[in-house]
Recover the amino acids of this structure.
């Protein structure tokens, strides 16, 4: 079986698929990973064959790019739907973060042929290589267009909640909704029509969906779902000597994720307070922060800073982790049974311009989602860095380390992760679904 993974060019989108891609290769299946040139090196580093598409000099930015016309249209469309409670957060994540990522390679209002280069290259590759199955990132629906154009079976491979299916179903359930203006369909239509592909639910949501999140964390949709276990992987480095074995006192990890620091230049104002809080505890802290995130912060003696260390190496030696709430970091801690403290606020979602400095955000797009799940399972606590002072943060860390209930809650969350089939054991299901759906688009 020939399998193509199509993904948006970000390491945070690459790493979750690596265990499944390796499992497929280990069984003798041929694998290719297709993305923009920006991800070519990272893909080769994880031992997978990379195929690059699009203009090499184009810089994918997702929500970091200004899209005034599209954003205005999204604001108008938002007025026609009324998600309540937590639903507003989910809708905002979809419109503020996910759609702009799609627009990098599927512009809603294309102004030139060069904007179609990525999807044209991908369709050409698919027709030439003739894959049996295309597994595509929901932020890169060009993969679905290529699969339909070449007759391959295709499915979405989620790396977080299904904002796309949930938002589409919500929009279409609104009495005044115009199906032609549904945001996901409107975003994909230009590249689909260019290659003679019909825009329907199958193209937009896949013939099925692979979901790595615990069942209780998934958004309700009607999509056919194939669960697959999240196996922590984030690129590897040599294991430092100081990391071998358990430390003499509790160890706490501090991580604010890869995506935030790759695309955002600000929003790190809470870092000094967190470092001051952990500096007053009898613990060892390993902070995977870069120079930008540490700017202006005093680093206590009990804090070791390192630019990057894979969480699957660090977390097995830790008693807790403080993090930004990204799904990748949450899932790594969940899979390894580590209690979590998640920085979150009651701010609206969205990114803001920082004049002369790029973009900044006061919180991660998914922090409220992951914090809500963790606290509902008594697997950790939420840190509101807008309202809690240094002593409040310090006391939260102290509670998570001393109260055995949080360790028990983290073990429950780990059990929910392990309830999904491993990447290797899901392959027979993929073969069966591919045989049923290939050529049916």
């Amino acid at each position: 079986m020939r399998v193509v993974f199509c993904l948006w060019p970000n390491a945070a989108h690459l790493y979750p698929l690596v265990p499944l891609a390796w499992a497929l290769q280990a069984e003798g299946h041929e694998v290719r990973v297709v993305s923009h040139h920006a991800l070519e090196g990272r893909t080769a580093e994880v031992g997978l064959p990379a195929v690059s598409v699009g203009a090499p000099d184009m810089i994918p930015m997702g929500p970091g790019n200004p899209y005034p016309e599209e954003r205005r249209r999204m604001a108008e469309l938002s007025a026609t739907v009324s998600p309540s409670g937590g639903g507003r957060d989910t809708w905002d994540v979809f419109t503020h973060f996910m759609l702009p990522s799609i627009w990098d390679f599927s512009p809603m209002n294309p102004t030139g042929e060069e904007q179609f280069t990525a999807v044209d290259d991908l369709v050409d590759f698919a027709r030439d290589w003739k894959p049996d199955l295309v597994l595509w990132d929901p932020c890169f629906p060009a993969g679905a267009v290529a699969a339909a154009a070449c007759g391959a079976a295709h499915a979405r491979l989620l790396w977080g909640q299904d904002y796309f299916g949930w938002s589409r179903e919500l929009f279409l359930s609104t009495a005044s909704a115009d199906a032609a203006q549904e945001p996901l369909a409107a975003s994909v239509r230009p590249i689909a029509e260019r290659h003679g592909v019909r825009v329907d639910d199958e193209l937009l949501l896949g013939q099925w969906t692979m979901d790595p999140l615990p069942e209780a964390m998934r958004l309700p949709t009607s999509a056919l779902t194939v669960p697959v276990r999240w196996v922590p992987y984030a690129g590897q480095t040599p294991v430092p000597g100081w990391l071998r074995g358990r430390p003499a006192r509790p160890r706490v990890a501090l991580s604010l994720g890869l995506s935030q620091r790759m695309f955002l230049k600000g929003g790190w104002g809470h870092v000094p307070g967190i470092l001051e809080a952990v500096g007053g505890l009898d613990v060892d802290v390993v902070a995977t922060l870069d120079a930008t995130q540490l700017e202006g912060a005093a680093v206590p003696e009990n804090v070791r800073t390192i630019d990057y260390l894979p969480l699957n190496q660090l977390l097995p030696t830790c008693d807790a982790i403080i993090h930004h709430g990204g799904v990748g970091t949450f899932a790594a801690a969940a899979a390894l049974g580590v209690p979590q403290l998640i920085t979150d606020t009651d701010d609206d979602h969205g990114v803001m311009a920082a004049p002369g400095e790029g973009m900044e955000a006061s919180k991660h797009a998914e922090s409220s989602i992951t914090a809500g799940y963790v606290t509902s399972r008594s697997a950790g606590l939420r840190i509101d860095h807008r309202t809690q002072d240094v002593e409040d943060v310090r006391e939260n860390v102290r509670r998570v380390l001393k109260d055995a209930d949080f360790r028990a809650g983290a073990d429950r969350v780990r059990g929910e992760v392990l309830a999904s089939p491993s990447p290797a054991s899901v392959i027979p299901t993929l073969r069966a679904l591919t045989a049923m759906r290939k050529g049916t688009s």
